[in-house]
Amino acid sequence: MAQYTTEFGSIHSYKKGGITAIDDDPKRYVFSNMFEVAAKSAPYERVAVAKNFEYVIESAKAEGESPWYSAAHDEFVIAMDGKVRVDFIKLTDPDAVVDPESEGAVIVQGQPIGEAMGYVVLSRGHMAMLPVGCAYKFSAAETCTIIIQTIDGAVTQHKWAQFCQK
């Protein structure tokens, strides 16, 4: 039986992923370049690193404070290194902020109107739900990487040609 060793990367220390087509084991492809994508992107630029039908995994560099986001569906975020804070506001009128038929996250213009729900601080491997009907923003004192599971939408960037191995 093959043995695998887990090597944790970070936005400050990672190896570029690669594909070695020896036995086509899917374990060779997971998270192959999310740190590189985050390192070469603007803060909170949400770049798709995986796609399955309408669903995407976005990699983003968390640095400073993000804009407020909202979506017409639940999303999830995972901290891949460092620490990131997520603040939440329960929107008074979510349908006025984001079209309930839309897909993917949208940037909320201005300060969201609603009740503060609190915040969570995520460290490596911690996951938080970004629930429908709320606005959320990220903040990080030091540069780190987050991945977001969502639906391909208005803020999702596609840079496959820039990051895929040639």
Give me a quick take on this structure.
With 166 residues, this protein is mainly beta.
Describe the overall structure.
This protein has 166 residues and is mainly beta. It is 8% helix and 45% strand. The chain has helices spanning 34-39, 94-97, 160-163, and strands at residues 46-52, 55-65, 68-71, 75-79, 83-91, 105-108, 114-123, 127-130, 134-151, 156-157. The strands form two sheets. Strands 1, 2, 4, 5, 7, 8, 9 and 10 form an eight-stranded mixed β-sheet that branches. It is globular, with a radius of gyration of 17 Å. The relative contact order is 0.28.
Share of β-strand residues: 35-45%
Structural class: mainly beta
Q: Identify the overall geometry.
A: globular
Characterize the main sheet. 8 strands, mixed
Rounded average pLDDT: 89
Overall helicity: under 10%
Any key phrases for this structure?
mainly beta, eight-stranded mixed beta sheet, two-stranded antiparallel sheet
What is the topological layout?
Elements: H1 34-39, E1 46-52, E2 55-65, E3 68-71, E4 75-79, E5 83-91, H2 94-97, E6 105-108, E7 114-123, E8 127-130, E9 134-151, E10 156-157, H3 160-163
Parallel strand pairs: 1-10
Antiparallel strand pairs: 1-2, 2-9, 3-6, 4-8, 4-9, 5-7, 5-9
